[in-house]
Design brief:
heterodimer, A: 425 residues, alpha+beta, two-stranded antiparallel ribbon, elongated, B: 239 residues, alpha/beta, Rossmann fold, six-stranded mixed sheet, four-stranded antiparallel sheet, 9 helices, 10 strands, 24% strand, globular, transmembrane (chain A), transmembrane helix (chain A), cell membrane (chain A), membrane (chain A)
């Protein structure tokens, strides 16, 4: 069989012009399949680790996903807030290690403004336990200071020392500016690939001070505009505790307590609250987009099938032209099984070189575009060697290819049996 | 000593009603050169495929080197062919992606027997060069040319070397000269006969053209699937 292998390789080299297209179509489908798989797992990983290290997210009674969307992704509004008293009571219970209060609802030029405390930068983690770090400046949000996410700074062109005006509501329209309430940028964060990049961080106390009356009275029906006009003068800047917050993140001393604490909060007597484990709810949220993920996979598999079909067509057409070659080999003593082996090895070699060139191209593209993708899309495409999934994928391409190769190999086996040494062509 | 013997043979292809070949008796002695003439469609290619062990007859006996190859299994016939038979086609004898030497040594790759048939210290490659030298093809310009660029006459001579390498007992040549011009035909046949004589190889030479039959020990014609012996102008001595 060693000689047949040699023969197959020489035959491929002789036919390389014709086979190049087959190799190319295989390598393209390998690039597509692996690329989709890699991007998918990259998105999945960075999505499900949007927030890590936080054991529980707490907000007013609402659905799990909507609480996650509001507090972590800063999408949508909560109807209810959590009273400061409840926050204080829960976060000072013995099982709790730390709490990060969150106050949302304001925006700056379309970017959400998050009122929080310095604890956010101390305890909020994303990815594999990564802390949010400033790229320039510091994370000081005391008084009227603010810190910008990387995307906010980039899109709006802010630098440390610039002034930022906060708007009530989440729109880009600035009809409700607090003109006299300008924040000063003290720091710009590094890119994280999480909603942090699109967030303006201010002090919870400063935010509350600006418009405590909004939150204070929102539960009742009233005309916000009139309210602003009437009492705009009335706020003050002391670091007073706010009446209420949107929600809070919590870290526990012992992870074993998570379920117990979650149950306790969900049954909280004083006000209706919801506590979620962010990892669990992130996965729930991911499941919503799973069909899209599957579609991508299906499309890639279809492309692979088309590529394999192309190879099959090329091989079968070439077989007829090669009947004489088979007869010569037979006359020189080759057995039908040698003919079978020759064609099968050729097919496998073509598919293997397609796979290899695909991998090489993909790795090269991934390495070259790594920084670009991380910066532009905030997506860390994993660069480590192959995951089990990818290896399985490659293996199944090879298996499928071998299966595809068996058909022409068997055909030429049959033909060489019946043709024997007679060839009409 | 008989090398090839056919007795009471009947052969037809699948789906045929009447037998294509009906040979009562054919015997060729070791080292003899046998000329077989037949029009196209006379069944000569079928006869050769039987002799080469590609197909088996429905009736009768084919004995090569004293072994009944019609009773062998397919793979045994394959092995027998690789070991004992050299085969030359009418045209396009060479594998296009192999070099001249690789084409000549091809049988040695499929048969250990033929790979070990050389004098000690010699290998298949040297033997190939020796044979090529005999047929006038050992020049560097020929050896390193892609085989597709050789002339038809050169290709046939390379094919003859391939058939001869490793000293198979029997060489079957299926119209090897039909694509050559007269001068090349002469050269080719003389070279082939000389090599066969030197090695005491039994040669079965098939052609539709009887003009060279006088160079052979014995000649016959295939007519209606039967062997008809023809007058021998020279030598004789077979049977």
């Amino acid at each position: 069989m060693k000689f047949i292998l040699k023969l197959a390789l020489k035959s491929i080299r002789y036919r390389k012009a014709a086979l190049l297209l087959s190799i190319l179509s295989i390598s393209l489908s390998v690039i597509l399949l692996l690329g989709v798989e890699r991007i998918r797992s990259g998105i999945h990983d960075s999505f499900t680790s949007t927030i890590s290290g936080t054991d529980l997210v707490v907000g007013a009674r609402t659905g799990n996903i909507s609480l996650l969307l509001t507090t972590v992704f800063h999408i949508g509004y909560t109807n209810q807030n959590v009273s400061w008293e409840s926050y204080e009571a829960i976060s000072s219970s013995p099982e709790v290690s730390w709490g990060i209060p969150l106050s949302l609802g304001d925006s700056h030029k379309g970017f959400p403004v998050l009122g929080t405390t310095a604890d956010f930068f101390a305890h909020y983690k994303y990815g594999h336990n990564l802390a949010v770090q400033p790229k320039t400046g510091s994370t000081n949000i005391e008084e009227m200071n603010c810190v910008l996410g990387s995307k906010v700074a980039k899109e709006l062109g802010y630098e440390v020392g610039d002034n930022v005006v906060v708007t009530h509501g989440m729109g880009k329209e600035e009809f409700m500016k607090h003109d006299d309430e300008q924040f000063v940028v003290t720091g710009i964060l590094g890119s994280t690939g999480t909603p942090v990049d699109q967030t303006v961080f201010v002090s919870l106390f400063a935010m509350d001070a600006i418009h405590s009356h909004f939150y204070g009275q929102e539960e009742e029906e009233h005309d916000v505009f009139e309210d602003v006009l009437n009492s705009h003068e009335g706020h003050h800047h002391q670091e007073e505790e706010p009446n209420s917050i949107t929600g809070f993140f919590m870290g526990l001393k012992n992870p074993a307590d998570i379920l117990a604490v979650q149950r306790k909060i969900n049954n909280y007597k004083i006000e209706p609250l919801t506590a979620i484990m962010p990892v669990v709810t992130l996965t729930e949220l991911w499941n919503i987009v799973r069909p899209v993920e599957k579609m991508l996979m299906v499309i890639s598999v279809l492309v692979l099938i088309v590529a394999l079909g192309g190879i099959l067509a090329t091989l079968i057409t070439s077989l007829n032209d090669r009947r004489r070659e088979m007869a010569i080999l037979r006359s020189a003593g080759a057995k039908p099984k040698h003919i079978f082996g020759l064609i099968l090895i050729e097919t496998i070699a073509v598919i293997l070189s397609g796979i290899l060139s695909g991998i090489i191209i993909l790795q090269a593209v991934a390495i070259l575009s790594k920084n670009l993708v991380a910066e532009k899309l905030g997506l860390m495409i994993p660069m480590e060697w192959f995951t089990i999934n990818e290896l399985l994928l490659l293996l199944s391409i090879l298996l499928l290819g071998t299966l595809v190769g068996i058909l022409p190999a068997y055909q030429s086996y049959k033909k060489s049996m019946s043709d024997g040494l007679t060839v009409k062509k | 000593m008989k090398q090839i013997e056919i007795k009471d043979l009947e052969f037809k292809w699948k789906g045929q009603v009447d037998a294509l070949l009906k040979i009562d008796h054919l015997k060729i002695e070791k080292g003899k050169r046998f000329f077989l003439q037949g029009e196209s469609g006379s069944g000569k290619t079928s006869l050769l495929s039987l002799l080469a062990g590609i197909n088996a007859p429905q009736k009768g006996l084919i004995e090569l080197l004293g072994q009944p190859i019609n009773k062998m299994k397919t793979h045994e016939r394959d092995e027998f062919r690789a070991k004992h038979i050299g085969y030359i086609f009418q045209l396009f004898n060479l594998v296009p992606y192999l070099s001249v030497i690789e084409n000549v040594t091809l049988p040695c790759q499929f048969s250990k027997h033929r790979n070990n048939a050389f004098a000690s210290g010699n290998n298949a490659k040297n033997e190939a060069i020796r044979l090529l030298k005999h047929v006038g093809l050992a020049g560097k310009d020929v050896l390193h040319k892609p085989v597709t660029e050789l002339s038809v006459g050169q290709q046939q001579r390379v094919a003859a070397c391939r058939a001869l390498i490793g000293n198979p007992e029997i060489i079957i040549a299926d119209e090897p000269t039909s694509s050559l011009d007269e001068k090349a035909q002469q050269t080719f046949i003389r070279l082939l006969l000389a090599e066969c004589s030197a090695n005491e190889t039994t040669l079965i030479f098939v052609s539709h053209d009887a003009k060279f039959s006088h160079l052979f020990d014995k000649s016959a014609r295939l007519e209606n699937g039967e062997i008809v012996y023809t007058e021998q102008k020279s030598k004789g001595g077979a049977k």
